[in-house]
């Protein structure tokens, strides 16, 4: 299946290369059809009479000379220049331009499809390619998730021992068919050898413990070292969780190589190493990055998505959904996560595509069956015990805890990351990783709840104790004499439960502290799992406490109505689940997608209300203590140009307060439409660093014609100097439809109309910034020109808007770094 | 960052197998293909005896201690009566005993596990070898040749970078042999990673 699609992908690619030339030509002719009015106006405005006075005359000339589009044939001969219409690294895309380019392309294909059968097939395959791409993304990300799950599980167990029945089995699979598993020691079997058994051939005594301890730390250090050095040598972009950057990329920023092949390979490989090293991190966030890399790479196979940055971002939104779908085994939750948390532009079509991609990815992972439990995640739970209305009180308490944890985590983690960014600490990424790993491993080994992998811990905490469970958490005293299976009443806690409580409390402290230092290190690290673990531990502690309270104080009014002797009234596993949701919500500030993910994990619809209550409370509490979620905080820390769509801008500033040039600055750098030479333009390019220039009729009139991007300009001039005969430094560059009348014996002119954006966005100088910000947000603009009485006055870029917002929020406006 | 200019990328794609990045992608895709093929076997494969189990956990009952039973039986036979053998209780107690037992049918694919672990280890091994090559062997055998220098110069002159990229994509220095092309692609990739490293580790512009 996959092979077939790869072949198809290659064929599509080749077919496109042949077809690209003609399609480009036609699109340029299409553009030409649209600018006839502009052409007509060119002749009339060559003086500096105030524009308003000239309107009548303009109209006249429009009607009179408007038909003169004779030499359109010239554009047919113009070759498309490679590179024009693309973006530089660390730049922002222009959504409007990209979307209109795609519409042109689509229109052209539709028009052509009536001409021949081949063109019809082409148009059908073009329409179909989006879905095919989703299928491929689902298959690839599902397979990679399976690979990550299986190898991470194996490597985690490798820290403790190895299977002699086949080195590729993890502990559980090693003892899968063993005849020697006993009821008392369920996870021991002769096939599985701990390191002390292999080295000193005994598993008893202090020395064996020390050997195991030593091997555990050693493996952890080795895995962490491998992870950080692979990241450093091959793909530095593979570190971190990736979600803040993906959010920024989806909002229109370009980071070349961030979603590339090497990033994909290295992130997949090192994610396994990082998870197995026992550090307090999860694989969920990085899986979203991995899925987005899959999406981006597969985009190269499809003409429609390769050349259009806006279309590609639609695909990436869907890929993010597929990533969460496989990370949590929650396809719907994935779609909602993409919608609520990551995506910037999410039309309905993308929703359906995300749905499909998430479905395929989940199906693929399910057929690999990485955990051998026919589920997509390790911590799938299934219990359906009812809950009582009174329990909402502890659930809300858990929500408050989650909110506090979220605010604390964000604040301390950002402080630590800022320290890393600005001080000497950031110079030693490898040593940092090794030190944190060593501390984690040394502290983790003695406590069995920290020694096991975090997802196993969560699955144990979510678990509802039955009679058959052997873990310490389920060590209750059985004082009843029922021979019936099924529902168990509340029971008094045994010794095991009490010691487990102590250990869990210690685990909670360790996790809280160490996660703050782990997130943001230079290895792939997600924080879903650690956050969930913190919440689950807190929830379980509270749950067991409530259970014992109810058992010993049944006479209390709060309990006696619903919790009689021998009834099963409190499920500690449910508390763990609610706690996990609350903590995750506090850190990420998700609500809808979080609840959906959690109930897809648990398969119980009756717990929606507790989960909602906890998620909402934690969001309120966390929002009261700190405005932004962890991803937004990291975006701001790094100064990415991300225009938050959720917040309102409510200041009474005007466009003229924000636009460049400021009052004392030199005048706005503009190009004139038909009087500048190649040399003039090249001087402007070399003397300024602006990424685009407005084109005006003349410097005196300052009437706007269009906007041209620096990159397009550079490429076109360079290309013309090389290819076009006679273009020298003194050649006139013109952006009009016809070359300006020139004296004889001047060097040939250079026409650059095809790179001119004839429909730049303009606002007047008195437009309130609320509206400008809204325009930037909703249309995804990159820059907007400001006019006064029709004359060009200045320019507002996305960066200016971001800086202005930061300034208004009393933050340092220079923290916005990129364009 | 040069290698990632779209125009150039196109050229690289044309050169196909010669480019290490595309080699990696081939590796990746073939990996995906292998994983994809793994999806097929469970459907028609002869379920070997070690791939299915029915596990029954029976808690202590009267004076009988708890026990775990493991049998290779099909899903429909996965219940206490079929799996618990020999039955530790007399006939009239079987029903009560079996009510306490919990039987679960589980499937796995040892082949998938084996293949995935082997693939994973070999990719890690290959990357480590390549890393060792880049760090130890490469600096020894590589003399500062003209091409690298040219690229370095371009690197320094950041303003001219995009121009240079456009030049290259329009048909700059054409490499002749496959080896040279591999070399060129490798150099470009190295510069790209170097740039990323500067951004992430030195300037701390991103991902900190």
Question: Which characteristics define this entry?
Answer:
heterodimer, A: 819 residues, mainly alpha, Clc chloride channel, CBS-domain, 3 domains, three-stranded mixed β-sheet, 32 helices, 11 strands, B: 208 residues, three-stranded antiparallel β-sheet, 9 helices, disordered N terminus, ATP-binding (chain A), ion transport (chain A), endosome (chain A)
What's the short version?
The complex is a heterodimer of chains A (819) and B (208). Chain A has 819 residues and is mainly alpha-helical. In chain A, helix 6 crosses helix 16 and helix 22 (528-552) runs antiparallel to helix 24.
Describe this structure in words.
Chain A: GO terms for molecular function: antiporter activity; ATP binding; identical protein binding; voltage-gated chloride channel activity. Chain A: This is Chloride channel protein. Chain A: It is found in: Cell membrane; Endosome membrane; Golgi apparatus membrane; Membrane. Chain A: Belongs to the chloride channel (TC 2.A.49) family. ClC-5/CLCN5 subfamily. In chain A, a hairpin with a 2-residue loop joins strand 10 and strand 11. In chain A, helix 17 runs parallel beside helix 27, helix 21 runs antiparallel to helix 22 and helix 22 packs antiparallel against helix 24. With 819 residues, chain A is mainly α. In chain A, the strands form four sheets. Chain A has a three-stranded mixed sheet with strand order 3-5-6. A three-stranded mixed sheet of chain A has the order 4-7-8. Chain A has a three-stranded mixed sheet with strand order 9-10-11. Chain A folds into three domains: 235 residues, Orthogonal Bundle (Clc chloride channel), CATH 1.10.3080.10; 229 residues, Clc chloride channel; 155 residues, Roll (CBS-domain). Chain A is elongated, with a radius of gyration of 32 Å. With 208 residues, chain B is mainly α. Helix content of chain B is 59%, strand content 9%. Chain B contains nine helices and three strands. In chain B, strand 1 and strand 2 form a beta hairpin. In chain B, helix 1 packs parallel to helix 8 and helix 7 packs parallel to helix 9. The chains are: A mainly alpha (819), B mainly alpha (208). At the A-B interface, helix 1, helix 6, helix 9, helix 11 and helix 16 of A face helix 1, helix 2, strand 1, strand 2 and helix 5 of B.
């Amino acid at each position: 299946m996959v092979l077939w699609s790869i072949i198809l992908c290659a064929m599509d690619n080749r077919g496109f290369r042949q077809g690209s030339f003609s399609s480009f030509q036609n699109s340029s002719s299409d553009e030409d059809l649209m600018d006839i009015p502009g052409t007509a106006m060119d002749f009339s405005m060559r003086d500096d009479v105030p524009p308003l006075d000239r309107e009548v005359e303009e109209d006249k000339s429009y009607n009179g000379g408007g038909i003169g589009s004779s030499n359109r044939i010239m554009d047919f001969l113009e070759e498309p220049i490679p590179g024009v219409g693309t973006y530089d690294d660390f730049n922002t895309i222009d959504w409007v331009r990209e979307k209109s380019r795609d519409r042109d392309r689509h229109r052209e294909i539709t028009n052509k499809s009536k001409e021949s059968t081949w063109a019809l097939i082409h148009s059908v395959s073009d329409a179909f390619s989006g879905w095919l791409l989703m299928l491929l993304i689902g298959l690839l990300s599902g397979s990679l998730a399976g690979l990550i799950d299986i190898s991470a599980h194996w490597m985690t167990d490798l820290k403790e021992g190895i299977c002699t029945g086949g080195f590729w089995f993890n502990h559980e699979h090693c003892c899968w068919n063993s005849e020697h598993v006993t009821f008392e020691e369920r996870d021991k079997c002769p096939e599985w050898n701990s390191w002390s058994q292999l080295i000193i051939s005994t598993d008893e005594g202090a020395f064996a413990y020390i050997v195991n301890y030593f091997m555990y730390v050693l493996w952890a250090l080795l895995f962490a070292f491998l992870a950080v050095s692979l990241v450093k040598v091959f793909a530095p972009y593979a570190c971190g969780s990736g979600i803040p950057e993906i959010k920024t990329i989806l909002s229109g920023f370009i980071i070349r190589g961030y979603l590339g092949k090497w990033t994909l390979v290295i992130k997949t490989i090192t994610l396994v190493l990082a998870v197995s090293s026992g550090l307090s991190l999860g694989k969920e966030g990085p899986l979203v990055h991995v899925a987005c890399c899959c999406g981006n790479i597969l985009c190269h196979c499809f003409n429609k998505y390769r050349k259009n940055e806006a279309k590609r971002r639609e695909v990436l939104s869907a890929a993010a959904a597929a990533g969460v779908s496989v990370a949590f085994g929650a396809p719907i939750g994935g779609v909602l996560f993409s919608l609520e948390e990551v995506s910037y532009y999410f039309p309905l079509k993308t929703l359906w595509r995300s749905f499909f991609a998430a479905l395929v990815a989940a199906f693929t992972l399910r057929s690999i069956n990485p955990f051998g439990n026919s589920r997509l995640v390790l911590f799938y739970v299934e219990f359906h015990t009812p809950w009582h209305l009174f329990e909402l009180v502890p659930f809300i308490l858990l929500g408050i805890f989650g909110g506090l944890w979220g605010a604390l985590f964000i604040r301390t983690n950002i402080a630590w990351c800022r320290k890393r960014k600005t001080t000497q600490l950031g110079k030693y990424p490898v040593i940092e990783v090794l030190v944190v790993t060593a501390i984690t491993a040394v502290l983790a080994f003695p406590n069995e709840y920290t020694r096991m992998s975090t997802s196993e811990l969560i699955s144990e905490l979510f678990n509802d104790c039955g009679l058959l469970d052997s873990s310490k958490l389920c060590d209750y005293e059985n004082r009843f004499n029922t021979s019936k299976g099924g529902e168990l009443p509340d029971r008094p806690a045994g010794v095991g439960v009490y010691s487990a409580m102590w250990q869990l409390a210690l685990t909670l402290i360790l996790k809280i502290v160490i996660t703050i230092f782990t997130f943001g290190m230079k290895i792939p690290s997600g924080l879903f799992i650690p956050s969930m673990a913190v919440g689950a531990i807190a929830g379980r502690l509270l749950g067991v406490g409530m259970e014992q309270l109810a058992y010993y104080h049944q006479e209390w009014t709060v309990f006696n109505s619903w919790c009689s002797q021998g009834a099963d009234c409190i499920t500690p596993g449910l508390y763990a689940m609610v706690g996990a949701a609350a903590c995750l919500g506090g850190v990420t500030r998700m609500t809808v997608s979080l609840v959906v993910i959690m109930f897809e994990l648990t398969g119980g619809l009756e717990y929606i209300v507790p989960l909602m209550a906890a998620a909402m409370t934690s969001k309120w509490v966390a929002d009261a203590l700190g405005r932004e979620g962890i991803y937004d905080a990291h975006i701001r820390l790094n100064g990415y140009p991300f225009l938050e769509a959720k917040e309102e801008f409510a200041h009474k500033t005007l466009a003229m307060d924000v636009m460049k040039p400021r009052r004392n600055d030199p005048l706005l750098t503009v190009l004139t439409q038909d009087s500048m030479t190649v040399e003039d333009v090249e001087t402007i390019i070399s003397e300024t660093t602006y990424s685009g220039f407005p084109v005006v009729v003349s410097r005196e009139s300052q009437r706007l014609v269009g906007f041209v991007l620096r990159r397009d300009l550079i490429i076109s001039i360079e290309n013309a100097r090389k290819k076009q005969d006679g273009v020298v430094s003194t050649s006139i560059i013109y952006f009009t439809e016809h070359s300006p009348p020139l004296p004889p014996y001047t060097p040939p002119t250079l026409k650059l109309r095809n790179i001119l954006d004839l429909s730049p966005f303009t606002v007047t100088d008195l437009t309130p910034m609320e509206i400008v910000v809204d325009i930037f947000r909703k249309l995804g603009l990159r820059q907007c020109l400001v006019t006064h009485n029709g004359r060009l006055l200045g320019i507002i870029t996305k960066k200016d808007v971001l800086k202005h917002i930061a300034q208004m929020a009393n933050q340092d406006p220079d923290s916005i770094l990129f364009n | 960052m040069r290698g990632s200019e779209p125009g150039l990328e196109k050229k690289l794609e044309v050169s196909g197998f010669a480019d290490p990045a595309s080699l990696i992608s081939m590796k990746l895709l073939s990996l995906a293909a292998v994983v994809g093929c793994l999806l097929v076997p469970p459907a028609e494969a002869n379920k070997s005896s070690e791939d299915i189990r029915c596990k029954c956990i029976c808690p202590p009952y009267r004076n009988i201690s708890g026990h775990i039973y493991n049998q290779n039986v099909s899903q429909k036979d996965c219940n206490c009566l079929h799996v618990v053998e020999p039955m530790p209780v007399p006939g009239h107690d079987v029903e009560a005993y079996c009510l306490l037992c919990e039987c679960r049918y589980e499937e796995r694919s040892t082949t998938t596990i084996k293949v995935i672990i082997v693939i994973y280890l070999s990719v890690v091994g290959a990357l480590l070898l390549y890393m060792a090559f880049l760090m130890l062997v490469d600096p020894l055998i590589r003399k500062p040749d003209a091409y690298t220098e040219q690229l370095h110069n371009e690197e320094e002159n950041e303003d001219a970078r995009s121009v240079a990229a456009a030049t290259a994509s329009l048909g700059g220095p054409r490499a002749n042999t496959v080896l040279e092309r591999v070399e060129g692609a490798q150099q470009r990739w190295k510069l790209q990673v170097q740039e990323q490293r500067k951004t992430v580790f030195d300037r701390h512009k991103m991902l900190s």
